[in-house]
Amino acid sequence: MIARAVIAYSVAGLACWIRYAGLFLIAAVVGYALLLWILQRNRLRTIFLLTALIPVALAGGVMLRNLVIVGTWRGGNDMTVHHPLKRVMAEYARAQLHLFFGEHPITFGVWQILVLAGGLGAAVVLIAGVRKGGLPSTSWLWTGWWRKPDAAELLVGLCVLVYSVSMFYAGLRTVITFGVRMFLPILPLYLLLLGMGINRLTACWPASAQSAWLKAGLLLVIVGYVGLNAHDLHRPFAPPRHEILAPLYAKSAADGQPLLKWVESNINAGDTIMAADGQGTGYLLNRRTIGMVTASYSPVRWECDEVKNQMKRFGASYLILYKLSPMDEDPEVSRASRISNESWLLTESHFVATAVSQRPPCGFVIAAENSSVRILKIGGAESASRN
């Protein structure tokens, strides 16, 4: 039993190695261990409480790594904002709606009718059961559960509660947006919680007509839910950033070869580069990359001194900037132009705007370029790989 607890707490701790939101899961499982220890003080609960320090230690390892690399335990996510409460509430509700009913625009059709009919039918059965005395009161269920809590229900409920409250607070104070992907980790927990509640209710009506009608209503909800979400399987996905950038590197440099060839020949696999649109660039070029984050996500302003300081700090050899013209006739490149102004810092950095359109300032020289990408290097002779 203790071995299983160690494995479970270790998995919970590893969650924050994947996404920082995993910290909310760690808070929930630690709170779960603490609450059970308070309710049932014995040797086993004490051991479990101490075991709950495993995910805390794993999260501490990530924070220590961030502190060493970038000087802050948050890993550079230090942008403090204050979003209006009403807006966050609306975005949160919208995210929950799309989490259950798909990311496509909400319309009223067959699947929605099934969900509505099943939900209303189940509600009518429950209300009728309570009025006839076939179900215990809500207060009785709560007090009875609290006297002898079910460990599984407590764990799932705490995870949902802590994650939801923490995400809502993060929406108020950080730059995150409430996309559906933010809440996908707790969708299985929502369904588990729903199943546990239904199981408790149907146990009050063993082999009765009310139980049969309740299950029929829930079956309609499930069929409608599956149909609604299956609709998203046919939606086209937005291309990832590296696919948007790839056509730019396929364009020829001065030597007639694609710029990507120059990168592969001149920038070693172990080298560090600095780039606008750092995530897409780093993934495409398969090089360690310092991303020049936009003002929406960072207080850093990418002017000359800041760029040179960060390149020196991390040992970056090359700086990659994008100079795409919004009027580019290539449809693949035009797709990229829609993200150029913000992601490529062309409007928020005087240094970047100058470096891609004129002679590079601050001691930078052009190492290679084509009509859409310019690769700079500090000092040295200019390369002939220009177009």
Coarse shape: elongated
Low-confidence stretches: none
Total separate domains: 3
Rounded radius of gyration (Å):
27 Å
Share of β-strand residues: 5-15%
Return the average pLDDT rounded to an integer. Answer: 84
Biggest sheet statistics: 5 strands, mixed
Total number of beta strands: 5
Helix content: 55-70%
Descriptive overview:
This protein has 387 residues and is an alpha/beta fold. The chain has three domains: 1-78, no CATH class; 99-237, no CATH class; 241-378, no CATH class. 59% of the residues lie in helices and 7% in strands. It is built from 17 helices and five strands. It has helices at 2-18, 22-39, 43-51, 53-70, 85-101, 110-132, 138-147, 151-173, 187-202, 209-230, 241-250, 259-266, 278-285, 304-314, 331-337, 340-343, 350-357; strands at 272-276, 288-292, 316-322, 364-369, 373-378. Strands 2-1-3-5-4 form a five-stranded mixed beta sheet, with helices on both faces. Strand 4 and strand 5 (373-378) form a beta hairpin. The longest helix is centred in the first third of the chain and has 23 residues, at 110-132. It is elongated.
Give the topology.
Blueprint: H1 2-18, H2 22-39, H3 43-51, H4 53-70, H5 85-101, H6 110-132, H7 138-147, H8 151-173, H9 187-202, H10 209-230, H11 241-250, H12 259-266, E1 272-276, H13 278-285, E2 288-292, H14 304-314, E3 316-322, H15 331-337, H16 340-343, H17 350-357, E4 364-369, E5 373-378
